[in-house]
Design brief:
Layout lengths: L7 E7 L13 H18 L11 E8 L8 E11 L3 E10 L8 E11 L13 H7 L5
Length: 140
């Protein structure tokens, strides 16, 4: 992971049957579910439990690099790539561990961009300073 990345976390999962398509490898939606699970873990670790109701997605970019197979272990890593005035770009990687059908390695990467929309508001607004500070990696 690059040193200039902001706060990050990783989690391990197993590709379950529900994560696969008729060909037996991951369905495209599984990538974003694993990314979102890592995102939720990161926000818990940062103490930002109110992040989700305030942060709708405005852009998702997924680069599919390799297939992941039923039963294969994966690691989902997410990090703060950039924090703007009212936006947040999260980078992510999904890597597969070696298994009988794959040597493992990078399976998908990309970015998810959210914006801060305060409860009851109709448009985005600047991140509150305590949230911005935590997302930037400052310690409370």
């Amino acid at each position: 992971m690059a040193q200039d990345r902001g706060p990050s976390t990783s989690l391990d999962r197993t590709v379950e049957w529900v994560d696969t398509d008729a060909a037996g490898h991951q369905h495209n939606s599984a990538i974003l579910r694993w990314m979102e699970a890592a995102e939720a873990q990161l926000m818990r670790e940062l103490g930002l439990v109110d992040y989700f109701p305030l942060s709708p997605r405005v852009k998702q970019v997924v680069n599919f690099r390799d297939r992941l197979w039923f039963g294969q272990r994966i690691t989902a890593t997410v990090w703060v790539e950039r924090i703007g005035n009212a936006s947040l770009a999260l980078g992510f990687e999904i890597t597969g561990h070696p298994c009988d059908r794959s040597a493992g390695g990078l399976a998908a990467d990309g970015t998810v961009t959210t914006v801060h929309v305060p409860l009851g508001a109709e448009a985005s607004a600047p991140w509150p300073e305590p949230m911005r500070s935590r997302l930037a990696g400052d310690r409370p």
